[in-house]
Every structure is written in structure tokens, then in C-alpha cells.
């Protein structure tokens, strides 16, 4: 998100939502939101009027259950993508970049396209190239 301050009309500052109030003002139809911006030069102080532009970074993103991810280090994880059909279906280990995580779900910023099949859970640890079989609980979207 980008933050503009009236005191610095020619500059935009990168911002990050750090808190969203659980209580909204129903009359004003407003929800208080705390946005944090870096104060690198120490020139920003309290009482400045800010204008914030919220943009959706994951509008085209893919969301997967967190159980589908393994070897998570920072925002990089391994996801096993299913290639092939029926008896030729194989698990292909792929590194993905994780975006937001919440409620047992993770958005994939890079490394998985919408419509690709992936393994959510396995009865044994998977290796790249292992044969996979759909279970009775498998979904197709």
C-alpha cells in the first residue's frame, strides 16, 4: 500500500497494515486501521494527515491449505504438484513463494498457477517423482 502525507505532497511512503480494529463504527461505516510506515530520516512526527491507497496484491493469487506446504523457510516452501493422469500421476516437488497466511490457508505469490493440481496431504512423506493416487476424498476444482 502507498501512503501520502499532506506535509510531503511529492512523496509516497510504503505502508503496512499492522492492526485492524475488531469494532466498527456502524453510523460512520468506518473501521479503524493502523498503518505503519518507515520513518527513515526521522522527519515524520505525530499529527500528520495521511491518505492511504489500499491495493489488492493477491487478486489473482492461488490459496492452498497450509497442510500442503513443507520445508517452510521464511516465505519459501515446497509444494507437491500433481503431473500426469490416473496411473501415471506423479508428485513434482516445486518451490513456491508464500504470500499472506491466515486461518490454516496460505496464498501462493509465485510458483503455482490457478487450476494446477497439488497434494494437500499424503499418507507418507513424498519425494520428487513419487507416484500419487487420488483418494476418495480428493476434490477437483
Note the main sheet. Answer: 5 strands, antiparallel
Report the portion of residues in β strands.
35-45%
What best-fitting shape do the alpha-carbon axes yield? elongated
How many structural domains can be distinguished in the coordinates? 2
Q: H/E element string?
A: EEEEEEEEEE
Overall mean pLDDT score? 84
Number of strands: 10
pLDDT below 50 for ≥5 consecutive residues: which ranges?
A: none
Structural class label: mainly beta
- Number of DSSP helices? 0
CATH class membership of the largest domain: Mainly Beta
Helix amount: under 10%
> What would you report as the Rg, rounded to the nearest angstrom?
21 Å
CATH topology of the largest domain: conserved putative lor/sdh protein from methanococcus maripaludis s2 fold
Q: In terms of quaternary structure, what is this?
A: single chain
Distance between the termini: 31 Å
The spatial strand order of the largest sheet comes to 6-10-9-8-7
**CATH architecture call of the largest domain:** Beta Barrel
Amino acid at each position: 500500500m502507498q501512503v501520502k502525507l499532506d506535509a510531503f505532497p511529492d512523496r509516497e511512503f510504503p505502508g503496512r497494515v499492522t492492526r485492524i480494529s475488531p469494532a466498527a463504527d456502524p453510523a460512520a461505516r468506518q473501521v479503524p486501521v493502523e498503518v505503519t510506515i518507515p520513518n527513515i530520516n526521522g522527519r515524520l512526527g505525530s499529527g500528520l494527515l495521511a491518505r492511504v491507497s489500499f491495493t489488492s496484491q493477491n487478486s489473482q493469487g492461488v490459496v492452498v491449505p497450509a497442510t500442503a506446504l513443507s520445508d517452510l523457510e521464511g516465505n519459501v516452501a515446497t509444494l507437491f504438484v500433481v503431473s500426469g493422469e490416473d496411473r501415471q500421476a506423479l508428485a513434482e516437488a516445486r518451490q513456491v513463494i508464500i504470500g499472506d497466511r491466515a486461518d490454516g490457508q496460505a496464498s501462493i505469490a509465485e510458483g503455482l498457477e490457478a487450476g494446477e493440481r497439488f497434494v494437500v496431504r499424503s499418507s507418507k512423506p513424498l519425494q520428487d517423482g513419487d507416484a500419487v493416487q487420488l483418494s476418495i476424498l480428493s476434490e477437483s476444482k
